[in-house]
Write a structure and sequence with these properties.
Blueprint lengths: L2 H9 L2 H5 L4 H9 L7 H9 L1 H10 L9 H22 L3 H21 L2 H17 L2
């Protein structure tokens, strides 16, 4: 099991406690900070055809782990978040300039080899389903 997947599973709060559903979907919901969902909402989201289609690419074939594509995306997402935090914490112009360059480089790599646009397109049906599953 990948470290990112393990961390995502441990980061879950109410989702994993309520849902005995797809562990990969639980992890994706936690990564999107959808931790306040009821069991009914999780089941509703899981039943959406568009979500099922997205999970084919976001999850492994057994739906128990993230796909390598999603793991790569998450790595860049974490790296980008850390770079933005460094940029915000920079105290002088040279440190800000270096942090900005680092942030821009990570974003370019994320788009080129980190599946940023592809995964965000796959996550969109899940975001939409959350807003319709009340």
């Amino acid at each position: 099991m990948s470290k990112l997947f393990t961390l995502a599973v441990f980061a879950l709060t109410s989702v994993s406690a309520l849902a005995n559903a797809n562990p990969c979907l639980d992890g994706v919901l936690a990564n999107q900070n959808f931790r306040d969902l009821t069991l009914q909402q999780v089941e509703c989201i899981a039943d959406q055809d568009s979500v099922k289609a997205s999970l084919v690419s976001l999850c492994s074939s057994d739906q128990r782990q993230f796909s390598s594509t999603y793991n790569t995306y998450r790595k860049y997402e974490v790296d980008y978040g850390n770079a933005v935090a460094s940029l915000q914490a920079a105290k002088d112009d040279s440190a800000r300039e270096a942090a900005l360059l680092d942030t821009q480089n990570i974003d370019q790599e994320w788009k080129a080899i980190g599946f940023k646009n592809e995964v965000q397109a796959l996550l969109w049906p899940i975001v939409q389903a959350k807003s319709t599953c009340k």
